[in-house]
Amino acid sequence: MGKVTRALGTKLSKGTKDIAGLTSIGGIEIKADTIDTTTLNSDGGYREFIGAFKDAGEVPIEGFFDPENTGQIEMQSALDTGLAEDYKITFPTNPKAEWAFKGVVTGFKVGDVEVDGTINFGATVKISGKPVLTVGTAG
Asked: What is the largest CA-CA distance in the chain?
């Protein structure tokens, strides 16, 4: 088995501000549409395809609500503006690895409280354009 790294220390940043108190950051899953290019003389009666537009999906996040964390509070403001802004997921790996992407906040929630629980926070960021995975050199 290759090198396995614990998730503890993974961060999501919006611009230069970390979103604090997170317990879960959804992974980036890129999918591609296809265009059918099958013709009457396609080999063996099999359909043929070429790649088309790609969609990097959404990044759902969850955690504990912290009214003093400006990163969390700015997620609601970002939902209101609807603008694509800079985000980064930084992994605690060696070598350093991170996803950088533009995203639009499409969901925001504070609540889901129970008698024996905490006050929860959540948001969803729709990726706009191509995300970039960067892996540095071991240090």
From this structure: 66
pTM over 0.70: yes
Is residue 102 within 8 A of residue 85, CB to CB? The reply is yes
Cβ–Cβ under 8 Å, residues 85 and 73: no
Residues composing the chain? 139
How sure is the predictor about 104, in pLDDT bands with cuts at 50, 70 and 90?
very high
Which residues are bridge partners to 94 per DSSP?
none
Phi/psi of residue 109, nearest 5 degrees? -145, 145
Say which amino acid occupies 68.
Answer: E
**DSSP secondary structure string for all residues of 10-35:** -EEEETTEE--SEEEEPPP--EEEEE
The secondary structure of residue 56, as a DSSP letter, is: -
Q: Are 60 and 89 in contact (CB under 8 A)?
A: no
